[in-house]
């Protein structure tokens, strides 16, 4: 456990020392703020529903930029050889790295908490609905990070890692748009596999076991696949 | 201390190591020689459990590298050819991170970091970011991480590459000071270095060990210096 924490801390510190993380942070917060103002100004209601939808959409573009380096950089710089020749299990390496990235993502998401207090000043947003919405976007981001970490473990090249990650995230997010072309079990499968309907429930204030299981199992599968991927010695 | 038996390694259809067997005793400093591409780095990676052998067995300190990899890694300090450094960390933070991953007890970590900073003459750059250090300093940080857990076995791939003459002597003295205390495998292209610090020499050519001998006996038997012997062993006639 102490090694997982050590790796997570190192990962988190690395984010705060990298220029790209600050650029991503600044752009994200600026876009969040702009959309928050536009949505509230347009809707004139004390609700973060549409803000959460924008956040969810933006995470598709932001998360791969944060995760592309997780393993790809270690492989290209040779530090993977260091990590894997220390008495640290592959599971600890994967969990530590995931936790570090998740903490940075949580920090980005937490920067938007002020929106709740702003709208609370003007109306009654419904604390539980907002909490459920935050839980939804956080779980979705957590799954995106696990996907990004997995694609980063496939290659030494950060660009390839980011593009692979974009491909998977686009598929998961936009699959709902193509659902009308399918029927029966394929339709149900696409509906369940896509992220859209699950996040929508959380944003509407509906926390269901099925949605939580969807995100947690998605994260677990990606973590297991990442572990298998780094165990695979073909890239060494 | 280190027993390798019939190690073979294939990369696809290419055979990088062919039936490599040797035994290294505790406290020995072994010079590992070979041309580029001869299989030195592959063998070192197998010893550190970073790469699995295609066949054969490696036992270090009584533990099998394939079956008990974590226990073996606890006994090993490894400096790869390119020092594995996190450029945005400070020297002290990096060494502390290495100590945490290498199972140094929490109460001992800072002590060990200070000790290796001292041993590798890194005190004046301890708070500097690794990215701004010269190549020589980076190499020494790489050595420092390798010895942070007082390993029983030290595997060094080109440890003096990029160092200035003064630093080379310091690193050689550091390795020499480990004689009898640690088992050291040292790969280098500087043949005089092997003559100065190693007791034993292993020469590898095209994945095969062609010389495994006590250095003094080997040199006295051949009646010349290591450089001449190495060149002779790698002459086109010998390779045929």
Describe the structure.
With 236 residues, chain A is an all-alpha fold. Chain A has 12 helices and no strands. Chain A has one domain. Chain A has helices at residues 2-17, 19-43, 49-67, 69-77, 79-84, 90-110, 114-122, 127-152, 158-174, 184-193, 196-203, 209-231. Chain A is globular. Chain A starts with a helix and ends in a 5-residue tail after the last helix. The model of chain A has no long low-confidence stretch (mean pLDDT 88). By secondary structure, chain B is an alpha/beta fold. Chain B has helices at 40-47, 69-75, 91-101, 109-119, 135-147, 165-177, 191-197, 215-222, 226-233, 236-239; strands at residues 2-11, 14-24, 29-33, 55-60, 63-64, 76-79, 153-157, 183-187, 200-205, 208-214. In chain B, a hairpin with a 2-residue loop joins β9 and β10. Chain B is globular. The A-B interface holds A 2-3, 6-7, 10, 13-14, 17-18, 77-89, 233, 236 and B 45, 48-52, 70-71, 73-74, 76, 78, 80, 82-89, 93, 97-98, 100-103, 106, 145.
Write a brief caption for the model:
The complex is a heterodimer of chains A (236) and B (240). Chain A has 236 residues and is mainly α.
């Amino acid at each position: 456990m102490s090694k997982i924490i050590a790796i997570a801390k190192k990962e988190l510190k690395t984010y705060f020392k990298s220029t790209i993380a600050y650029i991503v942070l600044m752009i994200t917060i600026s876009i969040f703020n702009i959309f928050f103002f536009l949505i509230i100004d347009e809707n004139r209601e004390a609700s973060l529903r549409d803000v959460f939808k924008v956040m969810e959409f933006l995470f598709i573009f932001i998360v791969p930029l944060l995760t592309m380096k997780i393993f790809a950089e270690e492989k290209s710089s040779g530090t993977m050889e260091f990590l894997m020749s220390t008495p640290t299990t592959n599971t600890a390496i994967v969990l530590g790295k995931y936790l570090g990235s998740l903490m940075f993502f949580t920090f980005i998401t937490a920067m938007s908490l002020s929106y709740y207090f702003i709208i609370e000043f003007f109306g009654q947003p419904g604390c539980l609905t907002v909490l459920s919405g935050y839980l939804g976007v956080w779980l979705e981001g957590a799954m995106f990070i696990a996907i990004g970490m997995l694609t980063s473990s496939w290659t030494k090249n950060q660009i390839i890692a980011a593009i692979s990650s974009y491909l998977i995230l686009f598929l998961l997010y936009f699959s709902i748009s193509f659902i009308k072309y399918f029927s029966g079990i394929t339709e149900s499968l696409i509906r369940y596999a896509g992220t859209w309907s699950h996040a929508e429930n959380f944003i509407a204030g509906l926390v269901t076991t099925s949605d939580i299981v969807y995100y947690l199992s998605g994260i677990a599968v990606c973590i297991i696949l990442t572990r298998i991927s780094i165990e695979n010695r073909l890239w060494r | 201390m280190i027993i390798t038996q019939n190690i073979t390694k294939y990369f696809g259809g290419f055979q990088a190591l062919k039936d490599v067997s040797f035994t290294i005793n505790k406290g020995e400093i072994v010079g590992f020689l070979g041309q580029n591409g001869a299989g030195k780095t592959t063998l070192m990676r197998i010893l550190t459990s970073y790469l699995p052998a295609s066949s054969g067995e490696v036992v270090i300190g009584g533990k099998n590298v394939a079956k008990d990899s974590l226990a073996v890694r606890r006994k090993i300090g490894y400096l790869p050819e390119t020092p594995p450094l996190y450029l945005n960390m400070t020297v002290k933070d990096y060494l502390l991170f290495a100590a945490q991953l290498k199972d140094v007890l929490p109460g001992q970590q800072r002590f060990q970091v200070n000790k290796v900073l001292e041993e590798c003459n890194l005190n004046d750059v301890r708070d500097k970011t690794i990215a701004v250090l010269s190549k020589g300093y980076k190499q020494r940080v790489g050595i420092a991480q390798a010895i942070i857990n007082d390993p029983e076995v030290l595997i060094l791939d080109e440890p003096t590459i990029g160092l200035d003459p003064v630093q080379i002597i310091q690193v050689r003295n550091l390795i020499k000071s480990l004689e009898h205390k640690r088992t050291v495998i040292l790969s280098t292209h500087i043949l005089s270095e092997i003559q100065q610090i190693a007791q034993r020499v292993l020469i590898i050519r095209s994945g095969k060990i062609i010389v495994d001998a006590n250095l003094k006996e080997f040199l006295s038997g051949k009646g010349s210096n290591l450089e001449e012997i190495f060149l002779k062993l790698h002459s086109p006639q010998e390779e045929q």
